[in-house]
Write a structure and sequence with these properties.
The structure is a homodimer of 460-residue chains.
Chain A: E1 12-16, H1 25-35, E2 41-45, E3 51-52, E4 55-56, E5 70-73, H2 80-89, E6 94-97, H3 108-121, E7 124-126, E8 132-135, E9 140-141, E10 154-155, E11 158-162, H4 165-177, E12 181-182, E13 185-187, H5 196-205, E14 211-216, H6 222-233, E15 238-242, H7 247-257, H8 264-273, E16 277-279, H9 282-294, E17 303-307, H10 310-322, H11 332-341, E18 352-353, H12 360-373, E19 378-382, H13 392-405, E20 410-413, H14 419-430, E21 435-436, H15 439-459
Parallel strand pairs in A: 1-2, 1-5, 5-6, 6-7, 10-12, 11-13, 11-14, 14-15, 15-16, 17-18, 17-19, 19-20, 20-21
Antiparallel strand pairs in A: 3-4, 8-9, 8-13
């Protein structure tokens, strides 16, 4: 069991600064732990309450009739060092300090005090000035954002770490809205103790995490960070979005985190060299990990496009070539095969257009012909609904069969015409076919698979 | 009244090939005309039915006891020339031939026959092999896609013309899904007669169209097309998405439309020179017109960013600078003013971060300070919800007031946390503030306003 396990699988949690007032951070955290069904014991701590949300409340941490594993501290900044001390004396191995009011507004001395206590007792600290952790599988949630305000995503295979809490909650909203899931989410704020390097190494060992995604403005320790990426990338993909890639962006980072970000181009080159995968937009940060979680790496540049909409297919080809992929024509042998299996009026080639008469069977058979030809490194599907043959249920079954039988990555783009189709798409994605709402986003996801392919090939 | 008015405001429509079978194109078109509340008379034509969907059915066009304005022809390709002849003899000024089976599968001779009839009688023809027109304000809809399959968007201010029908229906789905509206939609297919140049000139004169958006694979007549853009751009923005910008994309265009697209780079340069606005992704094709419909052109490169989420603000700055904008620091005078109006712990500058304590009032006052300083050419807002002060209703009112009082373009990006917030966002956008789900998409929309600013400045 890793040292940071205490943040995700504690047997007991003390919420120090629990509150009866539904507006207060210390109330929301307690409520979320109850709502999510936290499987361990929960001890609210507040000298002015006997009971909060049906749980017995303790005046001080020392009054808790048991050891605690994890302390979540939601107190005024100047009260946090003594609270951490008390928690440590009760056996806490970890503490999440959600309170703000530290170095981000010039109170560096409070962080020094907090760090001293932590070091003295060997307690690991996430924060301060952070949201903490959310893990729907282990059922822990210290985010002080009510579920009604920020609805949480389902359990999934991608873990996210983020320096910015507001960006983190925005990401959760996007992920939820797109029907996607999350394994572990950590907002680590001022990273007094636990930093991005620690978290990446921890997630590298975590069996529930298939892909790590990190939003980074600046790192505490550059060498440690790159080392963590190098080690983690040998086991699973690490996706990095660097905030502050431009000169004004860098200036904004310095004002946001108070720390020098360093030369962004050098940082990004180092991430690549360490085997990490770089993305540059919010959509890519969410989209690329979804592809990496289910698809194999991509080991070449040739993409086959299979569509049932001509114009959409053309935009996909443009998007792919803009990303440096090659949409190469099929060999004569493959052309013959395609012509034999499809009606004579279908435009075959690359792209192959299955037209408005398309059926899921044609997607499966033609897709397999592309895969089995050995002429392509990835398959790009555009199954548009809204034509009679594309019955959603059957499309789901046969496209998933295609993914199952393919030895190269498969990604898809389509626009959900109705809420029924949208549900089918979410289900398909969950079961293994990454699906994006535009050809450009699907091409960007494929580019992430290509980056990972390069990383894997290099480390062999 | 323009010659093409007959396609949008006919007094009567004959649906030639109307069908009792709900699966047939001729049924769906009739049903949609009834559902949308077409204000003129509708005459179904089918020799084998007395009545369809409650309307008296006529065996032949010549049996209709009245003149007709518009014929919608949904028959087998080889039957369309004689149907057009009959319609013309009944006074039809326009015909939409939705049927496929013409040049796209090698039957050029049928198109020649159709064109001969059209010229002989002076009937304008949209199609063949197209979806035809949709206009929710004038209440006409010839798209043979049931509303259950492709839900239609509300009336709006942007008109779209598209060569590709499948791309067109995808666009309608995207627009509807994002709560946006449409003025006129035309899928013109094989453009036997009415082409993109005719449509752009018509829409330039149309008071219900504030922005024209054209998806183009190849044009029938390059000079006519560029002339139409030059003329239209003097009155309103014309946004062009060229399918087939890359070498493989161009190959796909040739296979899709059967016509040579010509050098894409030359085409795009000509569009720009004619005052058109170029976009390169599906999202931009939908997003840029929304900004152009409500915001003034942008006449410089300086953008002020006002956010209540630090990380989101940094990604916005990156996205803006990647587009060539400058996120310049405020003057000392403006800095003093910002510091006076905001709490001391807010990071002011560009971006200014209103933090989790932000209120709509602060967005309004700070936004006005940026606008009134004269130091910026556009205002970029990031109002994240999910913090207590950002009450949706009040945010809506005050941000719209900010737009109202601003003399430079304002765009926003935020992520709808709940369906209530999503509705508020749709309403705000409808009332004048373009809102996008990612900073990158908002930056791309602003870039459209900048392109239009250059076009306007050049033509002065």
């Amino acid at each position: 069991m890793g040292e940071l396990d205490v943040f995700f699988k504690p047997r007991s949690v003390a919420v120090i600064g629990a509150s009866r007032n539904p507006e207060r951070v210390g109330h929301v955290i307690l409520k979320r732990l109850i709502e999510i069904g936290f499987p361990g014991r929960i001890y609210p701590v507040n000298p002015k309450a006997d009971e909060i949300l049906g749980l017995k409340c303790y005046p001080r941490v020392s009054d808790i009739p048991d050891d605690i594993d994890l302390a979540v501290i939601a107190l005024r900044a100047d009260l946090t060092p003594s609270a951490l001390e008390e928690a440590a004396e009760k056996g806490a191995k970890g503490a999440i300090v959600v309170s703000g009011g530290f170095s981000e507004i010039g109170n560096e001395y409070l962080e020094r005090e907090l760090l001293e206590v932590a070091k003295k007792h060997g307690v690991r600290v996430i924060g301060p000035n952070c949201l903490g952790v959310f893990d729907p599988k282990d059922r822990i949630d210290t985010l002080f954002l009510p579920e009604e305000v920020i609805p949480r995503p389902r359990p999934g295979e991608v873990s996210i770490i983020t320096q910015s809490g507001s960006l983190g909650s925005t990401l959760l909203t996007m992920i939820r809205k797109e029907g996607r899931g999350i394994s572990k989410f950590v907002s680590y704020g001022n990273r007094l103790d636990v930093d991005e390097g620690d978290l990446i190494l921890y997630l590298a060992e975590d069996d529930d995490t298939k892909v790590i995604a990190a939003y980074i403005e600046g790192v505490a320790d550059g060498r440690k960070f790159m080392d963590s990426i190098r080690k983690a990338s040998k086991r699973k993909p690490v996706v990095v979005l660097k905030g502050g890639r431009t000169s004004s962006g860098d200036r904004a980072v310095r004002s946001h985190t108070g720390s020098l970000a360093g030369r962004s181009d050098i940082f990004q080159a180092a991430v690549l060299q360490s085997g990490g995968i770089l993305v540059s937009t919010l959509n890519e940060f969410v989209d690329v990990p979804v592809a990496l979680a289910t698809q194999p790496p991509m080991f070449g540049d040739r993409v086959a496009v299979l569509t049932n909409g001509g114009g959409f297919g053309i935009l996909a080809v443009d998007a792919l070539e803009m990303r440096g992929f090659r949409v190469t024509p099929p060999s004569e042998q493959l052309m013959r095969k395609l012509r034999e299996m499809l009606p004579p009026y279908y435009p075959v080639g690359n792209p192959t257009d299955l037209t408005g008469d398309s059926t899921p069977e044609q997607f499966l058979e033609t897709g397999l012909a592309f895969v089995e030809s050995g002429e392509y490194d990835a398959l790009f599907l555009i199954p548009l609904f809204g034509v009679p043959g594309m019955v959603p249920d059957k499309t789901e079954r046969l496209l998933l069969e295609l993914v199952e039988r393919s030895n190269i990555p498969v990604v898809a783009t389509t626009v959900p015409t109705t809420s029924e189709v949208e549900e089918v798409l979410h289900r398909m994605e969950k079961r293994g076919l990454p699906i994006y709402p535009t050809p450009e986003r699907a091409a960007a996801a494929l580019y992430g698979l290509r980056q990972y392919g390069r990383s894997v090939a290099r480390s062999r």
